[in-house]
Each structure stands twice: as C-alpha cells, then as structure tokens.
Amino acid sequence: MDIPHTIGLMTTLLLVALLVEPLARRLHLPFSAVLVICGFVGSEAVVAAGGDTGLRWHHFHDLILFALLPVIIFQSALTLDLRQLRANLVPTLFLALPVTLVSAAIVAVLVYYGIGHPSGFPWMAAALTGILLSATDPVAVLDLFHRLGAPRRLTVLMEGESLFNDALAIVAFGLLLEMALGQIGDASALMALGRFLLVFLGGALVGFVVGVAFVGLMRWVSGSMRQAVASLIGSYLAFWLAQHALGLSGVMSVLAAGLIIGHWRRKQRGGGLPGLVEELWSGADYLANAVVFLLVGVTITLDMFSERWLAMLIGISAVLLARAMGVLAGLGLAGRLPGSQPVPLAQQAVVFWGGQRGAVTLALALSLPLALDYWWTIQSIAYGVVLFTLFVQAPSIPPLLRWAVRATNRPSH
C-alpha cells in the first residue's frame, strides 16, 4: 500500500474516532483512548481482509520526530503563561529537571532488575526505558482542571513540568540512542554531561533568537492569518536550524521560540480570548496528538500482551513507584526552598496520579530503530504504561480532583 492509501486509512480512522467521541464522554474515557481502539480495530480489519496498512518504521520515525513532535511542543509552549510560570518556577523546574532524572534512574534500575535478563535487556535498554517513560502528558487532566475549577497554580505546575520534562526526556533519549547505536563512543560522565548541556542549552538559545526574530516579523506583517502563518514558519525554522543545521536540540529550540512568541501574543491580546494564531495551533495540536494515538492503535499487536505482559507490569509498577517518590520528596523539598510556597498534600496527590504518559512517550517508543535487539521489549513496556494511563488513571482522575479541590478550598481552623 502506498502513501496515498495510508493517508486514506488514517483519515477514515480519524473520522470514525470523531463519530464515536460522544460515546467516549459517556463512558468517561479520554478521546485518546478511543483513538487507540479505533486504530487497533481498523488495522486488524484491514489485515484480516488481506490488506496492508502501508505503515513502515521509517514512516514512524520521520512523521513523529520531524512533523508531529514540533507541533505538540510548540503549542504547549505557546499557551503557557510565563508570568504564572515565574511565580511557580522553583517547584516546576524542580519537578521537571532533577526529579525527572532521578525518577528515570529509579525506573531504569527497577526495570533492569525486574526483567533480570542482562544479555537480552542490558543497562542501556533500561536507561532508554527510564528516560522514555519520564515524559509526562497531562492533556486529559488539564481539560478536567478547567471544567472542575482546579487551582490555577496546580494547572501551571503540571503544564510547566510536562513541557520541560518532555524536552529533557527527548534530548536525553536522543543522546542515549546515539550511544546505543554506536554513533558516539563511550564517554566519561563529565563529557556526557557537557554534551548534554551543549545540546540542551544551545537549542534553547537558537529558539530564543528565532522567537525574538519572528516576534519582530509578526509585528511587521498585518492580519491575523499572516501572523498565524509566520508562527508556523517560525516553529519549524527553529527546529530545523537547531536540529539539522547546528546539531543541537530542535525540541528545546521549538520550546524556547514558543515561549517567546506566546508571551508576546498574550501581551498583544491583553489577556483576552484566543486569536487565530492560538486557534490554529490548538487545531494542529489536536490533529498531531490524534495521529500519534491512532498510530499506537495501528501498531499494537496481541503478541505484546502474550509475550511481554510481565515486562509491561514491571514498567507500570516502576513508573508509579518512581512517580510517588519523586513527587512526595521533590515537592516537599521544593516547598522549603527560597522563593517557593509548599504544595498542599491533596494537590501533591493529583500531581502524582495526574503525571500520565502519552504522546511524547509513544512518539519516542515508535521511533526506536529495529537495529536494537531490545526495541520491541521497550516499545511494549511503553505501550503498557500508556494504556494503563488511558484506561485506568485518566478515568479515575475526576473524583480525585474533586476531593483535592474541596480539600484545598476547605477553611483552616
């Protein structure tokens, strides 16, 4: 099957998912869960009829890393309120950076010893698994926040954590993947840290420059449509310059550019309703996430659950344990640092259970090259964790959030 047929298949599956979305709301399932189901059932029907979905590994790699991830990251950065972020910068960065790295290390250790197969699942595989599962995606949770009147601070905390730890996870995953494939030699810890900082901070600097330049361009052009197009060009230019021209982090570049452009747009609108730029990116993000979750459904195989079910359970348990340790210890310590206020225990519970895994984890899992012998085990673990997120964590968030809101608003005596 060629690319036009593949596009036709994905379009049909997306249409079916949209038609059954009202049913998902009645069943209290997130739309992403419905997309996974539609992708799986649709692809199985095509194969049973003797057809071919037309999707190959290089399609996943190019589509996800170069087309979909920049959209997801830029839209998140565009909508993040920098003033609110600055007010909660200490706990946000503490969760997004050191806690994420420590949690990734805990997951790696637990998965390595849990699987207990050093030759088939070495330390490098465990490290890739740990960092891949460290990226959080609270999209479904944030929608509930808005509907249930959650504290604004809680929303900013989870938005900021997700945005920055996504970027951290993607950069670290890329470096580990190069090492696993032998594209860069074994390096000392100090050299590896230096390379990581160069790629991470260098990408942010490129994005800052591109963001400032395109704010100037958006001031120059007239009309909302031209500004929307300029923002689209700026996002992909930031990614291309950093990733391909300079060998830095394209994701960090997109993130920085999105923060700069989003801050200027917020001042321009004076805090009013979203304009065409924001609506364009909201639609693009919706489509990008939808395609990722459809791809998940299309690529699910029953063999994953029959042959890798234990690895999935180990991964789920490791992620929950590491998340609990990271949130309780991390937010507790961050609340004692200068310039930070403690996060109530009820809100910490929401941060723990709401730290779900989604599009970025799946995007990285789907981009694993087949040259790695353990690629399927890592991908199966990622799928297991994300499916647990969609069908267990997400439906149980509303009662937990209502309890947290009541506990937070309850007057102290």
| Total count of helical runs of at least 4 residues | 18
Task: Give the fraction of residues assigned to helices.
Answer: over 70%
What structural category characterises the helix and strand content? mainly alpha
Mean pLDDT: 84
Count of distinct strands: 0
Poorly predicted segments:
none
Strand percentage = under 5%
- What summary fits the major beta sheet? none
String of helices and strands:
HHHHHHHHHHHHHHHHHH
Radius of gyration: 21 Å
Question: Could you explain the architecture of this structure?
Answer:
This protein is mainly α. The chain has helices at 3-26, 31-48, 57-79, 82-87, 89-96, 98-115, 123-132, 139-148, 152-180, 189-220, 224-245, 250-269, 276-299, 302-307, 309-334, 345-354, 359-366, 375-409. It contains 18 helices and no strands. The longest helix is centred in the last third of the chain and has 35 residues, at 375-409.
Summarize the structure.
By secondary structure, this protein is mainly α. The chain has helices at residues 3-26, 31-48, 57-79, 82-87, 89-96, 98-115, 123-132, 139-148, 152-180, 189-220, 224-245, 250-269, 276-299, 302-307, 309-334, 345-354, 359-366, 375-409.
Relevant terms:
18 helices; single chain; 413 residues; 0% strand; mainly alpha
Topology of helices and strands:
Elements: H1 3-26, H2 31-48, H3 57-79, H4 82-87, H5 89-96, H6 98-115, H7 123-132, H8 139-148, H9 152-180, H10 189-220, H11 224-245, H12 250-269, H13 276-299, H14 302-307, H15 309-334, H16 345-354, H17 359-366, H18 375-409
Helix pairs in contact: 1-2, 2-13, 3-12, 3-13, 3-17, 5-6, 5-9, 5-15, 6-7, 6-15, 7-9, 7-18, 8-18, 10-11, 10-12, 11-12, 11-13, 13-17, 15-16, 15-18, 16-18, 17-18
